[in-house]
Design goal:
This is Mos1 transposase HTH domain-containing protein. Pfam families: HTH_48. The protein is mainly alpha-helical. About 65% of the residues lie in helices and about 10% in strands. It has five helices and two strands. It has helices at about 10-20, 25-35, 45-50, 55-60, 80-100; strands spanning about 65-70, 70-75. The N and C termini lie far apart (about 80 Å).
Length: about 100
């Protein structure tokens, strides 16, 4: 064959769907695409989106963090980390209180 076959986004979507229906995990799907297509493989975000996982779910379920006041905070802080965070917050409040009283 002298003609080169070009893959479109729709082709990749069909392959991702096929892998999903076969029961492949996201990472297995990504590994297959990367080994076969190299730089032309779809990104992790694309494959994750097709598998129904978004950034919020990945951060919350897999990295054990939750969103508090538009910041991602780990669920599993140690006592010393929690104490340090509270101390820092108190210091910020004191600093800003001095500025606003002046």
């Amino acid at each position: 064959l002298s003609e080169k076959m070009e893959l479109t986004r729709e082709n990749f979507r069909a392959m991702i769907y096929y892998d999903f229906r076969r029961g492949l995990l996201r990472q297995e799907c990504i590994d297959q695409f990367t080994s076969t297509f190299g730089d032309k493989a779809p990104s992790f975000a694309t494959v994750a989106m097709m598998h129904g996982v978004n950034v919020t779910i990945a951060l919350h379920d897999h990295l054990a963090v939750k969103k508090v006041c538009s910041r991602w905070i780990p669920h599993n802080l140690t006592k010393s980390q929690k104490d340090a965070h509270v101390d820092w917050c108190k210091q910020v409040v004191r600093t800003h209180a001095k500025v606003y009283r002046s």
